[in-house]
Structures are given as structure tokens and as C-alpha cells.
Amino acid sequence: MSGQVTWNTGQTSDLDAQLSTDPAQPPLGIGIDLKTGPLAGDKAAAVIPTPVSDVDCALTGLQTLTVPALVISFI
Questions:
Q1: pLDDT tens digits, residue range 8-36?
Q2: Which domain covers residue 64, as residue numbers?
Q3: More confident residue, 5 or 65
Q4: Cα(24)–Cα(2) distance, integer angstroms
Q5: pTM as predicted
Q6: At a CB cut-off of 8 Å and minimum separation 6, what does 55 contact?
Q7: Are 15 and 4 in contact (CB under 8 A)?
């Protein structure tokens, strides 16, 4: 995935993210590489403590993932 974050200063950072959703390989989370902006070159990891997937995920594969909370650590 890729996207952009707008910081509280108004500056932006482009990022690439890798989503890990395999419950057999915990933790579920996101690896983030900041490509531009004030934190260019930095990495972050986000742990998804209580993800909620679609009800029939085991049968049809992951279709939706709701993230009610997210913990981000810059590494």
C-alpha cells in the first residue's frame, strides 16, 4: 500500500506500507517506510491489537479489516 500523511505542521510525507494479516504469524500489523517529508528515511511499525475481519474470512479470504485502535512506534 502507499499513501500520504499530513502532520500537525501541515507538512506531508509519502509512505509505503506492508500489511501483515496472517493470524498464524502474529502480530497483525503494518510496516511503514516514510519516503518523503520531515521523517524521510524513517520506519515505523503499527500493531493492530484488536482487528475485526469479515465474518466469513476463513472461508472466503480477507475482504475487510476494521481497525478500532492502532499503536504506532517509530523505529
A1: 999 999 999 888 877 677 667 888 999 99
A2: 2-74
A3: 5
A4: 25
A5: 0.66
A6: none
A7: yes
- Which pLDDT does position 54 carry in this prediction? 78
Side chain identity at 62, as an amino acid letter? L
Counting the structural domains of the chain, the total is 1
Assigned C-alpha cell, 56 = 466469513
Identity (one letter) of the amino acid at 9? T
Buried b (16+ CB within 10 A) or exposed e, 34-72: beebebeeeebebbbeebebeeeeeeeeeeeeeeeeeee
Cell numbers given for 49: 491489537
Measured distance CA(50)–CA(41) in Å, rounded: 29
SS3 helix, strand, coil % of the chain, rounded to 5? 5, 45, 50
**Among positive and negative, which fits the CA dihedral 48, 71, 31, 65?**
positive
